[in-house]
Design a protein that fits this description.
The complex is a heterodimer of chains A (314) and B (323).
Chain A lengths: L2 H5 L2 H7 L6 H4 E3 L6 E3 H6 L15 H8 L5 E3 L18 H12 L5 E8 L2 E8 L10 H17 L3 E7 L7 H5 L1 H14 L4 E9 L1 H4 L8 E4 L10 H8 L10 H6 L5 E2 L2 H15 L25 H8 L1
Chain B lengths: L8 H20 L4 H20 L3 H8 L7 H7 L19 E8 L2 E8 L5 H6 L7 H16 L4 E7 L6 H5 L2 H14 L4 E10 H5 L6 E5 L3 E3 L3 H8 L1 H5 L5 H8 L3 H6 L5 E3 L10 H19 L4 H14 L7
Parallel strand pairs in B: 2-3, 3-4, 4-5, 4-6, 5-7
Antiparallel strand pairs in B: 1-2
Helix pairs in contact in B: 1-2, 3-12, 6-8, 10-12
The chains are: A alpha/beta (314), B alpha/beta (323).
């Protein structure tokens, strides 16, 4: 209580009282253009900045909600491998780090797996969660992806993976590195079953994840501007002692270099996946008109409209 | 001239004294044979003691020792009739990964591996064993050839990691590593990998998705170099200039003995006393024995059987025996 609150009538105090919806949570600053965006607008726009089109991080479950039909999806129970097998400790204990992230995010590890329909077609989806220790690949993630592959094979569903990762989880040492061949086996299972496997690369996807399951898709889609590479740009710059050009290792660059098929705006990811998966699985029944089909831009006129010329001549 | 590692200082001193005495013996005619014998026995004991309890960081230094046998040494002495093949048939040749068909103790095989180089000029030529996509794509090409002719594939892993360069990224470093691992895992021929020095991260995995994975006694295999790990996880200490790489090597458990215990590798090949660099001939012979045994174990298996064997082996990693 200060002198002001003592002399201000309660009614006026209420006007200035901070509610739970404080300014911090109501407005979000775009990481790219710096504009302040109202949270509802951001949510409605699937976490894409309305000013500059920058694709901000999106929660894994929000991603699933946008992807699947209104009938929803089911999360798949994932195996719970031995936590902290090395009893790893750096400046902090790994077991404590894990506990903190589990508490903070509400998830067990950096990948969740779901099954549901996309325009009527059954699809298994694995989503990496960058908010959980940078989406790092450890045993939990390897087991999650293997489970996703098993589930896809059992149900004869295609597998879609949304990748986002800083790479391997160092705190699990060699066991994290072993998830590179193990996740590759997951891809092989789906491939051997003759089912499509599509990767959607999101910002950022680097390291052991890119160098394993994320680069082995039948189709690679990427969100605009996503950083995708093996080594991170800082490591490369330190190695070659030169500055990398703008756009290096970005989604558009990877299309140019032949590593990614399409850059797809987040608003079009669902429609693109639906179209591809329906065609690849020869499922014609539902695919005639995907719900959120993207309207094509009318072709730009290269020659003047003839009717206009006719009118002018009159 | 032998290169001694920092922790080998007492051994270097003893070796020096032995050398001096030997010189005295020949020059002055004073008989010091007994003393030499005594010191040599002492040096052997010191070597046994030192190498019997190397820390993980010391092993890292031994694994990187310049005098350790490299791919070229194995290509020259382990096998006969080796023909090095070049190029990925798409972009170029990458001397960081060498390979070609050869004869190994009477059998035709495909030998593939990283070459780090042994002196400055060869190190530059081989890019310190850090491959670009062409290297992995050449390995894929050679693996496919091995499959066509039903040759066992023997891969020698010795790399700090894949090269983090600009051109490599442009040409799909990640895709090349992923596809190389993918190819190795699905190959219908026996695949045997031996970590002979440094098994650095994804660049090593690409040549180590094998039916049998062996490691030399003092080699290391890790998800990231101890230095790299330290700079990320011991940020504060690194900022103050403390070398935390030894702590990182301990925490990540990078030694062959650790990996055997964790169920990641199938066996350890013992090194000559004082490390592989002290006796190349013996090391190459021992590696040959271990590889021969591994080939014999896999020889009767069908292509489908080999694939299943590999798949089951990797699926089991991390599922059993950990606490």
């Amino acid at each position: 209580m200060n002198w002001l609150s003592n002399i201000t009538p309660p009614g006026i105090k209420n006007i200035f009282k901070r509610t739970d919806e404080s300014a911090d949570t109501l407005w979000v600053k775009c990481n790219d253009c710096g504009d302040m965006v109202f949270h509802r607008d951001l949510e409605a726009g699937q976490q894409v900045c309305p000013s500059c089109g920058f694709h901000m991080r999106i929660a894994p479950e929000e991603r699933l909600k946008l992807l699947y039909d209104e009938s929803g999806y089911t999360l798949i129970d994932l195996p719970d491998p031995v936590a902290d097998p090395l009893k790893f400790r750096d400046e902090k204990k790994y077991s404590d780090r894990l506990k903190d992230y589990r508490k903070k995010t509400g998830y067990q590890d950096a990948m969740i797996v779901a099954v549901g329909n996309i325009d009527g077609l059954g699809v298994v989806t694995a989503v990496q969660n960058f908010a959980f220790m940078g989406g790092s690949m450890g045993m939990g993630l390897g087991e999650a992806l293997l489970k996703a592959a098993e589930e896809a094979v059992m149900r004869k569903h295609p597998l879609v993976v949304f990748a986002a990762s800083g790479g391997a989880r160092m705190q699990e040492g060699i066991l994290s590195l072993m998830q590179m061949p193990r996740s590759t086996l997951a891809v092989q299972m789906v491939r051997d079953a003759g089912l499509p496997y599509i990767v959607v690369l999101t910002h950022p996807t680097t390291g052991g994840v890119t160098a394993s399951f994320a680069m082995l898709g039948d189709v690679h889609l990427a969100e605009p501007g996503a950083l995708i590479g093996f080594a991170g740009p800082r490591v490369i710059e330190q190695t070659i002692r030169e500055k990398l050009p703008d756009g290096f290792q970005r989604a558009e660059f990877l299309v140019e270099k032949g590593m990614v098929d399409l850059v797809v705006h987040r608003h079009d990811v669902r429609a693109t996946l639906s179209r591809l998966l329906h065609v690849l699985t020869k499922d014609g029944a539902q695919s005639a008109k995907p719900k959120s089909v993207v309207a094509l831009e009318p072709p730009t006129r290269l020659t003047p409209d003839l009717t206009m010329i006719d009118k002018a001549a009159e | 001239m032998r290169t001694y590692l920092e922790f080998e200082k007492p051994i270097a001193e003893l070796d020096g004294r032995i050398q001096d005495l030997k010189q005295m013996d020949t020059q002055s005619g004073v008989n010091v044979a007994e003393e030499i014998e005594r010191l040599e026995a002492k040096a052997d004991q010191l070597l046994t003691d030192t190498y019997g309890k190397l820390s993980r960081w010391q092993k890292t230094l031994v694994a990187r020792h310049a005098g350790r046998p490299h791919f070229s040494d194995y290509a020259a002495s382990l096998v006969d009739d080796f023909t090095p093949l070049a190029g990925d048939r798409s972009f170029g040749e990458d001397a960081a990964i060498l390979g070609g068909p050869a004869r190994f103790r009477g059998r035709s095989i495909m030998l593939i591996g990283h070459e780090k180089g042994a002196d400055t000029s060869s190190r530059v030529k081989h890019n310190f064993g850090m491959a670009n996509p062409e290297g992995y794509r050449k390995a894929i090409r050679l693996m496919e050839m091995a499959e066509r002719f039903s040759l066992p594939v023997i891969m020698l892993v010795d790399t700090p990691g894949a090269f983090p360069g600009r051109g490599g990224e442009e040409r799909g470093q990640a895709e090349a590593i992923a596809t190389c691992t993918d190819k190795s895992l699905s190959l219908g021929a026996p695949v045997i990998s031996v970590i002979v020095g440094e098994g650095g991260s994804g660049g090593a995995v690409a040549l180590a998705a094998a039916n049998k994975i062996l490691m030399l006694e003092h080699s290391i295999y890790s998800v990231i170099s101890p230095e790299g790990c330290a700079s990320i996880l011991w940020k504060d200490a690194a900022g103050k200039g403390d070398n935390k790489a030894p702590d990182a090597a301990e925490a990540m458990r990078v030694s062959a003995q650790d990996l055997l215990e964790l169920g990641v590798i199938d066996g350890i090949i013992h090194e000559p006393l004082g490390g592989a660099h002290r006796d190349l001939t013996q090391m190459i012979e021992r590696l040959g024995d271990a590889v021969e045994t591994a080939i014999e174990e896999l020889e009767g298996m069908s292509p489908a059987g080999l694939r299943k064997h590999r798949r089951d082996k990797f699926l089991a990693i991390g599922r059993n025996g950990l606490t």
